[in-house]
Amino acid sequence: VQLQASGGGLVQAGESLRLSCAASGSVFSINVMAWYRQAPGKERDLVAFITSSGSTNYRDSVKGRFTISRDNAKNTVYLQMNSLKPEDTAVYYCNADISTTGWGERSYSNYWGQGTLVTVSS
Q: Do the beta carbons of residue 80 and residue 54 sit within 8 Å?
């Protein structure tokens, strides 16, 4: 199983970006999908997550600006980022709990994507 993230880039403050992350390989089902970010010299932090039923949760600093969504048919999670700020600059990583067998809750393993860089200039 692989997670492939894309969509990062360099934008100015106030602009938007849309990140995508697709799971490929022997994917039977996906539970929670999430985006994390890691700024230079800082720890990796949770940005947002979405459950298999579509429930979402966001860190306070991105509420109202970022929207996480998923397309279960494409095994893909998205992060729409609007009104970007310089403090959003980071490497963004996707993360997902994936089952390759469908043999219940214990069959899920956690996977990370390779990261995509988002740079917001002031």
A: no
Between β-strands 9-12 and 116-121, what pairing exists: parallel, antiparallel or unpaired?
parallel
Backbone dihedral region of 104: left (phi > 0), alpha (psi from -120 to 50 degrees) or beta?
Answer: left
Helix (H) or strand (E) holding 5: strand 2-6
Q: What is the pLDDT of residues 15-58, one digit of tens each?
A: 999 999 999 999 999 999 999 999 999 999 999 999 999 999 99
User: Among candidates 40, 24, 14, which has minimal Cα distance to 117?
Assistant: 40
pLDDT confidence of 105, banded at 50, 70, 90?
confident
For residue 48, give both structure tokens. Answer: 């947002």
Confirm if 19 and 7 have CB atoms less than 8 A apart: yes
Four-residue CA torsion sign, 23, 24, 25, 26: positive
Q: Which amino acid is at 20?
A: S
- Which candidate, 56, 74, 51, places its Cα nearest to that of 66? 56
